[in-house]
Structures are given as C-alpha cells and as structure tokens.
Amino acid sequence: MIGGGLAGCEAALTAARLGCDVDLYEMRAIVDGKPRLTPAHQTTDFGELVCSNSLKSESPYTAPWLLKQEMRRAGSALLRLADECAVPAGHALAVDRVEFSRRIAEAIEAEPRIRVIREEVTCLESAGNEIALTVIATGPLTSDALSREIERLTGAGHLAFYDSISPIVDADSIDMSRVYFAARWEKGTADYINCPMDRAEYDRFYDALLAAEAAESKDWEKLEYFPPHAPEAGARGPRYFEGCLPIEVLATRGRDTLRFGPMKPVGLRDPRTGKNPWAVVQLRKENLRADSYNLVGFQNHLKFGEQARVLRLIPGLENARFLRYGQIHRNTYICAPVLLDETLFLRTKERKLAFAGQISGVEGYTESIATGMLAGIYAAAMARGEEPIPVPRATAMGSLVHYITHADAKNFQPANITFDLLEPLEEEVRKKIRDKKERHRLQCERALAAFDAWRAGALSRANASDL
Predict the structure, then answer these.
(1) Cβ distance 74 to 112 under 8 Å?
(2) Which phi and psi angles does 436 have, rounded to 5°?
(3) What are the two backbone dihedrals, phi and then psi, of residue 233, each rounded to the nearest 5 degrees?
(4) 97-110 and 77-84 helices cross at what angle (nearest 10)?
(5) CB neighbour class for 144 (10 Å; exposed up to 12, middle 13-18, buried from 19)
(6) What pLDDT, in 10s, does the model give residues 178-207?
(7) What's the predicted TM-score (pTM) here?
(8) Domains observed in the chain
C-alpha cells in the first residue's frame, strides 16, 4: 500500500484483517529531526485531514448516509474510528482531526500484519520488471517522481485540478453576541455557529472579496488551461474542481452566487428576529473541546493579510484570530475510465496495480475511505489467487466505482457520491411515486439489500470475521 492517507490506511487495515501481510509506504516522515511534508500537509500523521473535518451527512436516506451505511456494514476501520471521535455537527459526521489521526496510528501500530515504511516510492517495478501486488493511494499530492512512474506504466497523461482548504478561527475570538447556534432546517442538534448578514453587510463583504488580492501560486501548483467559466474567450487560469470552488471564484459568477452557495440563509432562521437573514456564514467545530471552528465552504486562495481583512467583515468575526488561513493545493488523479476496471485494478500490467482514494478519481473523505476499503478487499482476494467480485452497481460504492470507470474520458472530473450516480428506479415506480424523498428511500433500501448480498458472497471466501 502506497500512501498513509485515508484510502491507504483503510486499504492496509482491511487487507491485513483479511489475512494479508502489508507494507504501508508513506513519504511524509521525520528526517534528521525535521518533518518532510507535502506542500499542503502540516504533519506526518496518518490520515491527516487537510481540508474540512466533515465526513458529510448522517441524515437517513441521503447519498452520503447510504455510502457510510454500506461501509459500516462491511466493517470499515476508519469509519468506526471516525464515529468514536466525532464532534457535534448537527446532521453531519465531523471529527476531531487530531484525535482521528492519533487513533488511525494506534490501529496501524496494533496490527501485526502491517509494516510501516517511511520513504518515498519512486519505482513500481523490480529489477526484473516485476510488479508486486500494489494499491496506490497517494492522494492529490502524489510526488513528481511517482507521478512520472505512474504515467510511464499507464501510458496515459494525468489530469490535474486545484482543491482548497477552509480557514479556522479561535473560538474565544468570536463575538457570540452577534451570532446564534442553529442547524439548517433544524436537522440534528444546533451545533453550527451562524453569522447572519443583512443586505448592506453582505454587499460590503462581497465588494471587499472581489477586490482582495490573490496569493501567488507556487511552482508545484501551477497549471494553465481554459476554464469553463472564463470571463472572456481565451482567458486562462487554474482548473478548479466544481464541487469545491474558492469563494472568490464563486463571487465572480454574480453578486448572489454566494447566497445560493456557502452563504445560503434558507432554513437558518435567526431566533432573535424570527426571520431568515440575507446571507449566513456557518462555522463548524474542529474538535470536542470546541476551541476552534472552521468556516464552512470558505476555501480560498487569497493572501493571508487579505483573508484577515475580508473575513473580519463577517458579523461576529470582527476580532477573529485565525489559527489557519485558507489555502489551495494541486490535486492529481488518473483517467480512471481509460485505465481502471471495476475492481479498481489497472487493466494492464497483469492486474497488479490498483488505485484508491482521490488519485483514482473520487472526491471527498468518505469516498476515499470507501475506495480504500474496496481496494483492500479486492487486493486480498488477488493475493489468495481468487478473482475479486466487484461490488454491485446498485449500491452506493458500486455506483461510485461505475462512474469513475465508465465516465466520459474526455471530460472526466472527480465525483462525490450523489443520487445522480445511483441506478434510477424502474420507470413504473418513478411514475407512481413523485416524492423525491420517497424515491431516495427506495433507492437506499435497494442498495443496502444488494450490498448485503454482495458482502455475504464476496467476503465469505476470506477469513473475514471482523468484516
């Protein structure tokens, strides 16, 4: 297993529990007393959460809920740890990121079948051009050397886009007299701090955001292309993932774009006025101590001084102390529709190389863990000399894998789990049932039934008592 992030750790723990001896490689390490890091990581910890601390919704019969239910039924190690170190976040599963990494490290250390090797992998073939059974889960910041090696073996170029990090503020620096606790639509407990804006406050914030100076891109994150929302023909700029756009990019699409995105006030009635504000900024707990909060959906690529100036225009954050500013980093992923089969293995190279996590073309923490678990299951089957049984298309996991292996290769972009990826209900059922929530419930029930049947068959051949 190459990569000590979410997918790599899940793959290693899964394969080990299925009887495999695993070498887990991680390039981040302490070298000569100093940490060797990637440009976006801040620690050498396993499973470090670089962006937010949320693993998305736990509301029943939503797509993220369905994916996590399947993972729980298959015994996902990291999801169990996430549940154990969850912090209050309304209807979402959010974790104390430091505690989460610590527990992942403990789980890996406690597994006698896993050997941790802290070094960079730059070659995937031995001197005799042999390739060991390998899962590559090196994430969005795969090293240049390994990227070149993967490109050499696959014969296909990489795609790249930019992903980003939200700011974090010290809880003690928030003016609680100007904010209120609430969960959108009153789902779950009121764990989010809401910073309401009237129209004048929003306009002032919006104008300052548009005028703010962007940070200079470093050499490792530079990439030019023709963006789909270029302001004029021929304009060039960085290729952002549409599901995680920086707020300053969203703002360029129109004055109200933020109010329909990360600052959407709908379902967040201010208890002091009884009305919905013109716009709202939500803050989510970073840990159980609740001593820090991240600004939900406020990833950006502005200079740090500009961030402080603009974000302090948000009501309640006038004197905010920022523990971490928003940042941006490059994300690298393979063209999975061309390269991977439905067991996440490369179609060539005698099916010895598998990919999991963001480098495989999925987006999101939960999706990365899910593909890591599947890669661990499939690799363990291959190690036993068996043909892996792909997870059914009708499931959330199967739908995610089906997307990345069957999408249009020319326009391939990473994807989160959504109902759009799942198989639709039969036409007769869709005509009979108009309510979208009821349709989603039926899709979830069908998916879980298919998943349970797959689990009983695919894992029955292995020593899978823990799964």
Answers:
(1) no
(2) -65, -40
(3) -60, 135
(4) 140
(5) exposed
(6) 999 998 766 778 889 999 999 999 999 999
(7) 0.76
(8) 6-158+334-458 (3.50.50.60), 164-330 (2.40.30.260)
